[in-house]
């Protein structure tokens, strides 16, 4: 079974009142489209992501192994049709498709997963989220109420709308004019569509005030954590110390069960701390002989992967090494690069700095090196 997400993003956003199409506008520090894409990327049930772009916009989305791109049509339905034809022609193994408006950028991975899981059961060819209308409905004419409308049984449709792939492809081919949405096309073709509960937060940015609403929703969905770590290793025999992944020549080494990289250990603990998932000793017990002499990047990689598994990105890293000697500054660029390679964080978001303790205490007496680290972890959608 292969589930594809088809994100239509070829519209011009005429009603949004922005200088360019709404999907490229900044929202909470990123672009609207980036939020939408990340929600689908973070949904494990989604196997493929296809973005349908206007030909004028092709250069605006950098190439990524996470998604494919094709071009759209003059209408939303035309863009959906192009996307479906692309999926049919490229790979051909798609069994289900979730069709989504790029402008619904507050969609959550949990909601996507619920819809994908339902269509995957095969008990219905179509599944779509919607909210029952709760306001009274009027018919207006010339600014006057000209009539009323019974609201019972009426719903406000949202996306993603999920379908059996072959069935919705046939439906769009049979009805090239399309409809307001893909549920309308499916229904004209005789396909049953089940309703799942929609989400008030899953708004479609349409008019200028919607940007402010969407930004507030995204901010409320964010989970921002700060983690801190601290470690100490004692000097012993040796001719170098391992610090933040770099072998720094010194007349002594650091003692420890592993390679005693005190900086990397502090950083690893900071990540575990931000996740509230214990510490390095819990994940790699010193009593376990398999970690004797282990290179510390193993620990750091474990913490980084754990963060990713729980949906967190490491936003920035700040490590402070506390020692009289060796001098750290000549090696800090190499240390930042080593940490960047392991964590995937760009070097401009990694700081490695040092301080002495003014010859006071154990670091001042050069009995060992201490390190502390801070990280921020950010989960962008619930
Ligand atoms: N030719 C089109 C028209 C619309 N869409 C997409 O369909 C979704 C829903 O459409 P809408 O909110 O109406 O977006 P726009 O067409 O961009 O906006 P407007 O109608 O205000 O111009 C959006 O994600 C939009 O990018 C598309 O892919 N191709
Ligand atoms: C598909 C849709 O989002 C369902 O509510 C909606 O119909 C698209 O909006 P448009 O403004 O009509 O393109």
Main attributes of the structure:
382 residues, alpha/beta, Spore Coat Polysaccharide Biosynthesis Protein SpsA, Chain A, 60s Ribosomal Protein L30, Chain: A, eight-stranded mixed sheet, 19 strands, binds cytidine-5'-triphosphate, binds the ligand C[C@](O)(CO)[C@H](O)COP(=O)(O)O
Short structural summary:
By secondary structure, this protein is an alpha/beta fold. Helices cover 30% and strands 29% of the residues.
Architecture blueprint of SSEs:
Blueprint: E1 3-9, E2 26-27, E3 30-31, H1 32-41, E4 48-53, E5 68-71, H2 76-89, E6 96-101, H3 109-120, E7 126-132, E8 137-141, E9 144-149, E10 155-157, E11 161-164, H4 165-174, H5 182-188, E12 193-197, H6 209-221, E13 223-236, E14 240-243, E15 246-249, E16 253-254, H7 262-275, H8 280-283, H9 297-309, E17 313-322, H10 332-343, E18 350-355, H11 361-364, E19 368-379
Parallel strand pairs: 1-4, 1-6, 4-5, 7-12, 17-18
Antiparallel strand pairs: 2-3, 6-11, 7-10, 7-11, 8-9, 13-16, 13-19, 14-15, 17-19
Helix pairs in contact: 2-4, 4-5, 7-9
Bound molecules: cytidine-5'-triphosphate and ligand LQXTBERG.
Cytidine-5'-triphosphate is lined by residues 8-16, 21, 23, 52, 72-76, 78-79, 101-103, 204, 206.
EC number: 2.7.7.60, 4.6.1.12
Binding site for 4-CDP-2-C-methyl-D-erythritol 2-phosphate: 231-233, 257-258, 279-281, 355-358, 362, 365
Pfam family, one: YgbB
Describe the structure.
The chain has 382 residues and is α/β, with parallel strands linked by helices. It folds into two domains: 3-221, Spore Coat Polysaccharide Biosynthesis Protein SpsA, Chain A, CATH 3.90.550; 223-379, 60s Ribosomal Protein L30, Chain: A (2-Layer Sandwich), CATH 3.30.1330. The protein has helices spanning 32-41, 76-89, 109-120, 165-174, 182-188, 209-221, 262-275, 280-283, 297-309, 332-343, 361-364; strands at 3-9, 26-27, 30-31, 48-53, 68-71, 96-101, 126-132, 137-141, 144-149, 155-157, 161-164, 193-197, 223-236, 240-243, 246-249, 253-254, 313-322, 350-355, 368-379. It is built from eleven helices and 19 strands. The protein starts with a strand and ends with a strand. Bound molecules: cytidine-5'-triphosphate and the ligand C[C@](O)(CO)[C@H](O)COP(=O)(O)O.
